[in-house]
Write a structure and sequence with these properties.
By secondary structure, the chain is of the alpha+beta class. The protein has one helix at 2-20; strands spanning 27-31, 36-39, 48-52, 57-63, 69-74, 77-82, 86-88. β2 (36-39) and β3 form a beta hairpin. The chain starts with a helix and ends in a 10-residue tail after the last strand.
């Protein structure tokens, strides 16, 4: 009986976590200008980890709390890019409200 209660509690906890935690949108984006900086944190005063050229593709994970930066991966570099320097590769993705 105790095992059934533990299993039930586990599934209820899992269900709660799935409904409370936000899902992260992941999509590909492309840089729309040259000299796009990837920062270590979502601020332009952070360390610059890489500089991308126009047309480089990144994987976007989420946005910063203020909506000004997107968290990205590019060829093993993980950091933040100012959102206006990226355009979705798939035009059906609406990013204005994301």
């Amino acid at each position: 009986m105790k095992k059934v209660q533990l299993v039930t509690a586990f599934f209820l906890l899992l269900l709660t976590a799935c409904t409370v935690l936000p899902a992260q949108a992941v999509f590909s984006a492309v840089t729309n200008t040259d000299k796009v900086k990837i920062y270590s944190e979502p601020t332009d005063s952070a360390t610059v980890l890489a500089v991308l050229k126009r047309g480089d593709v990144v994987k976007v994970h989420t946005k910063s709390a203020d909506g000004q930066y997107w968290e990205v991966d590019h060829k093993g570099t993980h950091g933040w890019i100012i959102f206006k320097y990226l355009s979705p590769r798939d035009p059906s993705i609406e990013t204005k409200h994301w």
